[in-house]
Specification:
- The protein is 39% helix and 15% strand.
- It is an alpha/beta fold.
- It has 6 domains: 89 residues, Alpha-Beta Plaits; 234 residues, no CATH class; 310 residues, 3-Layer(aba) Sandwich (Rossmann fold), CATH 3.40.50.300; 213 residues, Rossmann fold, CATH 3.40.50; 35 residues, no CATH class; 104 residues, no CATH class.
- Helix 6 packs antiparallel against helix 11, helix 19 runs parallel beside helix 30 and helix 26 runs parallel beside helix 37.
- The longest helix has 22 residues.
- It is globular, with a radius of gyration of 32 Å.
């Protein structure tokens, strides 16, 4: 390819880019280069330019495609120097001819700036207390009894006193105050007999500033209840919350919401309320800044009287303050800091490495105020400084395969909604069936919604790490995008390393087809300019931050985005908030999350609406209550966004769209009722089409005879039953090996919990297979060491990609197993936990399912005949009549962990699928039971209704019970609706505390966990089990031997019957040695990274075998 490179760099950036470009191309002028180059060479050139880019860097690359045609490929650095086609302006002027500032839609930008700057002047006044100063000098150790932000808040409360906002602002503006006005009336928690709840006393503006001061490190959390002699710690323990408490919750905040003191000793508490060194407000520069800001705030008092009710203003002000505080505190070089009073005695912080004083307190406060104002002022322009993806042919290309043509119609509809979605917001639902290409369709829809001139930015968030890696890799390969254009973030570096290693191992691409691929998906990347933007520049040194914000397309686990609402301490919400502000959001397979995670996901969708994102939900099995609840959360957020950023007077009327492989539809929905009606109509049409589709999965309930009463009796009996029916299914659903004419089938046995699964696996190994048949058994669950689990998944991925049925017989390991045995029937069986249901693109011939929920049955059915469209006549999925929990613990909840049943409220009357499911719900297994609920639900009598009812109660706001005449006469208030996922956007001021995050955290750990590692000896001949503990230093890991105390080793060869063998897993040390050699690392380092597994800390003994993984041993 022939390229033309044009540099519009200035100063030292011009010298630097010339040095780089001269190595790759010949000059055609002072700022122009031309050369033929390969795609690999061009990628390397771009990486070098990006690596050395400064704020004055600006280089455009044009692809010369013929005599009369060139195409802009990318711009590195400041894209403002070029127009959208890569042309350079003839002349420039500093005059605002286009009056672009008039188009700023930030109606409350001034409020955000002033609140941020004033709060910055107040935020660390509490550091002047004697206790904090002693701590920085090393004279005080242990936890704070009262944190500095609470002391700052009390000082500000004392200054405000009983004044209204106008009065205290006037005193501040006129400088009519002394230090005693702040100190004399301060309420001293822990010392005074009675102290007030701060926010019940402060007027609106003062309360808003007070909240910013209090929350600039951590959100207020409800203190845990006293539990005997157990020490109470902030953010830990149970803090019960009732709906009736929510109304006055914010006004009741007291000191323990910020920190729980470990003692009530007055001598230890007194230094927190003594200010021997005075306060920074005595300095002339502090008073000067306070006066200016107070005067500007006086002008805003009339326009806004409900500061705390504005989610948008308050949280962006908090973001600006926290980012400024974090950034300025990290500065050690005086060159980049402001000047304070000479020899000011009070300290704000110390140098982390040496412990020596770093910043004086007066300078720190002034510096944070300056930076906070700069950040708040620059927020409106952040979007224009971030990279975007434009003119990408891969997204626009029409589908050639008939099965994927629906994507073209979806793209066209999204394109037609582009301007409307920008103005009104967008809430989309993609319900296309499994195997229809939803992943690419989602990207095409979001690309079509974006302005083609500016380019697209969107995030695809998923629940599973492995699925996230697969999705990212699939999009990169399909669309030919680099790491800087499509970033993949999964959180677990070891998972990502293994995935990339196996991907590279599998790659075998030649260079002959490379040129065609370049031409096929040529696109433009506008790089943006991190170094030249006040917000982005302050984030540049944070590890991992740049990739999370900068990439035009981000594929990540949802864990990277939920901190936008879930972070109660530190500044972990800053980066995901900026990502949501600057890109659209796809939530893929959202219904696969545990029901306890849905409140957090509801908060995320609400925040996406609040920050201006367009949202697309994607899953074939979206239940109506989940969709309607998330719509209402989005609508609530979008309503707030439009109040602050939208067209004045424009009513909230969300642009909604529905897509599947048969149809697409759009509608403006101003209310939940309008959305519900349209969604139900679309779902009904989808059900009608599903009913007429070829049946690929037929189900049958497997009646269970009396199997015993104790687990030791039940589990071997279940194994025998599974073996018997697996052989029967094999007879009906097998393929014939073209080389040997042997009959081969691939089956899945799904079990709900790992420990019973291992017992059943051991029983199957003992029982073996009958003559003429051979069973190849793979035991697959999450309690394998990482290297073993990845090895199993890699083999299954290679084997179970069965779009071409004959291909599996060409796999070397399958070929070897078939050729090395005499039996005519070969059953390749995966005995797996719920990890088999989602995230794997596997195609089985048949399945036997231990039921947990209708959702899991439908998801697992999606793995049967996944890549084959032909109809199935005989049942290929058997459902056990009930599960092992019901057999082993009758009378207790059975469809529970995993499942939707609970101990009390949501209890099923019985646990037999014969009564819990109707024939049409299991005889043909597809998405229909999930997509539409019955009009009348019987949650205690139906597995399907139980799921719908639980989701409805959680996601949809329930009407309040009307008061009786007597209650009205007594002046009683109606009871608020019970707490649910909707409480976040329904209850006012809850967003100012962390109580709902505290009550319903994302991915809550129900029991403590430990990490175990299998470390080899020096010779690599054997291994021993170690527990991994955190060391004293940050990032340090200690490996404690626990072989004798925790481990029970099992020799499977002594238990193994005839004609059965392990499949999918190899010896642990062999797998580890192969990986270490491939990655060129030591065996010990490989074990410490990839030989780990997470397990319950409560269990006393663990059994282990490389084939079986870890299980609880008795």
């Amino acid at each position: 390819m022939n390229v033309l490179l044009i540099s519009q760099c200035n100063k030292n950036a011009l010298k630097q880019t010339r040095r780089v470009l001269d190595q790759f191309a010949e000059r055609r002028g002072d700022r122009t280069w031309q050369t033929p180059i390969t795609q690999a060479g061009l990628d390397t050139l771009r990486k070098l330019l990006r690596k050395t880019a400064r704020k004055n860097t600006s280089v455009a690359c044009h692809w010369i495609r013929g005599h009369d045609h060139s195409e802009l490929l990318w711009v590195v650095g400041d894209a403002v120097q070029f127009n959208l086609n890569g042309a350079v302006p003839t002349n420039t002027t500093a005059r605002d001819i286009l009056r672009r500032q008039d188009e700023n839609d930030w109606h409350n930008g001034e409020d955000i700036l002033l609140l941020t700057a004033m709060a910055a002047l107040l935020h660390d006044l509490g550091k002047a207390c004697d206790a904090f100063q002693q701590r920085l000098k090393g004279k005080l150790e242990g936890r704070n009894l009262y944190r500095h932000e609470w002391v700052s808040l009390r000082l500000f409360q004392a200054f405000v006193g009983s004044d209204d906002d106008a009065t205290w602002l006037a005193r501040l503006a006129e400088g009519n105050y002394q230090e005693q006005d702040w100190v004399k009336g301060v309420e001293r928690d822990g010392l005074d007999n009675a102290t007030s709840a701060v926010f019940s006393e402060l007027p609106p503006l003062a309360a808003a500033l007070g909240w910013l001061v209090l929350s600039h490190h951590r959100l207020p959390l409800k203190p845990p209840e006293k539990d005997g002699d157990t020490e109470r710690r902030w953010g830990r323990g149970k803090a019960p919350l009732q709906a009736e408490q929510l109304g006055g919750l914010f006004a009741s905040i007291h000191a323990e919401w910020n920190e729980i003191p470990e003692t009530q000793d007055p001598k230890r508490i007194a230094p927190y309320w003594q200010f021997s060194g005075g306060l920074p407000l005595n300095t002339s520069r502090w008073r000067e800044r306070a006066t200016k800001l107070a005067r500007r705030l006086q002008a805003r008092l009339e326009t806004n009287r409900h500061w705390l009710e504005s989610h948008y203003v308050m949280h962006l002000a908090r973001l600006s303050l926290m980012l400024a505080d974090h950034h300025y505190s990290s500065l050690e070089d005086l060159q980049h800091r402001v000047r304070g009073e000479p020899n000011y005695p009070l300290i704000a912080n110390t140098v982390r490495k040496t412990g020596k004083p770093n910043q004086p307190l007066d300078e720190h406060i002034l510096g944070v105020e300056k930076h906070a104002a700069a950040i708040a002022r620059a927020l409106p322009s952040i979007d224009s400084h971030l990279p975007r993806l434009a003119r990408h042919k891969g997204f626009r290309k029409r589908s050639s395969h008939p099965r994927f043509r629906w994507q073209d119609k979806a793209f066209d509809l999204a394109q037609s909604l582009r301007e409307r979605s920008q103005r009104q917001g967008f809430f989309g639902i993609n319900m296309a069936s499994t195997g229809c290409g939803k992943t690419l369709a989602n990207g095409r829809i979001m690309y079509a919604l974006a302005d083609p001139q500016q380019g697209a930015r969107f995030s695809i968030a998923l629940g599973l790490r492995t699925l996230t890696l697969q999705t990212g890799q699939a999009l990169r390969e399909r669309l030919h995008l680099g790491e800087d254009e499509l970033a993949v973030r999964v959180g677990g570096s070891a998972n990502k390393t293994l995935f990339e290693h196996y991907e590279q191992e599998a790659e075998a691409s030649g260079s002959a087809s490379q040129q065609a691929l370049i031409e096929e998906d040529a696109h433009v990347v506008f790089d943006g300019n991190f170094d030249n933007h006040p917000v982005l520049r302050r984030l540049n040194n944070e590890p991992g931050t740049r990739a999370l914000i900068a990439a035009p397309i981000l594929v990540c686990t949802v864990d990277h985005l939920v901190p936008a609402t879930e972070s109660t301490r530190g500044g972990r919400q800053i980066v995901p908030m900026l990502r949501l502000m600057s890109s659209d959001l796809v939530l893929d397979e959202i219904d696969d999350f545990d029901i306890n995670d849905l409140p957090a996901l509801t908060r995320l969708v609400n925040w996406a609406g609040l920050l201006g994102s367009r949202v697309l939900l994607s899953s074939a099995t979206l239940p109506p209550a989940l969709v309607e609840g998330l719509y209402e959360a989005y609508r609530s957020g979008r309503k707030a966004f439009q109040r602050h950023r939208g067209e004045p007077g424009l009513a909230v009327d969300i642009c909604c769209a529905w897509f599947d492989e048969h149809d697409r539809q759009h509608e403006n929905c101003a209310s939940s009722e309008a959305f519900k009606a349209t969604h139900q109509a679309f779902a009904k049409r989808r059900l009608e089409r599903l009913a007429t589709s070829p049946v690929r999965r037929r189900g049958e309930i497997l009646a269970l005879p009396a199997l015993g009463k104790r687990p030791e009796e039940i589990r071997p009996a279940v194994a025998a039953l599974l073996r018997e029916h697996a052989l029967a299914l094999h007879q009906q659903h097998h393929s014939v090996d073209p080389h040997t004419s042997k009959r081969v089938s691939f089956g899945l046995m799904r079990m709900a919990n790992i420990d019973p699964l291992v017992d059943v696996a051991r029983a199957l190994f003992q029982q073996g297979a009958p003559e003429g048949a051979r069973i190849h058994l793979c035991v697959y669950h999450s309690r394998h060491p990482l290297v073993m689990r990845s090895e199993i998944e890699r083999r299954l991925d290679k084997t179970l990609q069965r779009a071409e049925l004959e291909r599996v017989f060409q796999q070397p390991d399958i070929r070897r197993l078939l050729d090395s045995s005499e039996e005519n029937d070969h059953l390749f069986i995966v005995l797996g936990s719920p990890v088999t249901e989602v995230g794997r693109d596997h195609d089985y011939d048949w399945a036997i399912v231990e039921p947990s929920s209708m959702r899991s049955i439908i998801q697992l059915a999606g793995r049967v005949r996944r890549h084959r469209e032909q109809a199935c006549e005989a049942p290929n999925i058997l459902l056990l009549e009930t599960n092992l929990k019901d057999l082993e613990r009758p009378g207790e909840p059975a469809f529970h962990k995993p499942g939707f049943e609970t101990n009390t409220t949501w209890r099923l009357k019985n646990h037999s699928l014969n009564t819990l499911l109707t024939p049409d719900e299991y005889q043909v297994i597809d998405a229909r039971p999930r997509v539409l609920a019955r009009e009348t639900l019987h949650a205690t009598e139906s597995l399907v209704d139980l799921e719908h009812e639980r989701l409805y109660q959680l996601m949809i706001e329930q009407p309040t019970e009307p008061l009786t005449k007597k209650e009205i006469r007594l002046g009683k208030q109606p009871k608020p609706p019970p707490l649910g996922a909707y409480s976040w956007h329904v209850m006012p001021q809850l967003h100012l505390t962390g109580v709902l995050i505290q009550r319903d955290p994302f991915r809550q750990q129900l029991e403590p966990e430990i990490t175990l590692a299998l470390l080899p000896d020096e010779g690599g001949e054997t291994w021993t089990l170690h527990r991994v503990d955190d060391g004293a230093r940050r990032g340090e890991k200690l490996y404690v031997p626990v072989e004798e105390s925790l481990l029970v080793r099992v020799d499977l060869t002594k238990e193994q019957g005839e004609r059965i063998q392990a499949w999918g897993a190899s010896d642990y040390l062999t797998a580890l040695a192969d990986l270490a050699e491939d990655l060129d690392i030591s065996l010990d380092r490989a074990a410490r990274t990839f030989g780990t597994v997470t397990a319950s800390a409560r269990n006393q003994r663990w059994g282990y075998h490389p084939v079986l993984g870890f299980w609880r041993s008795k």
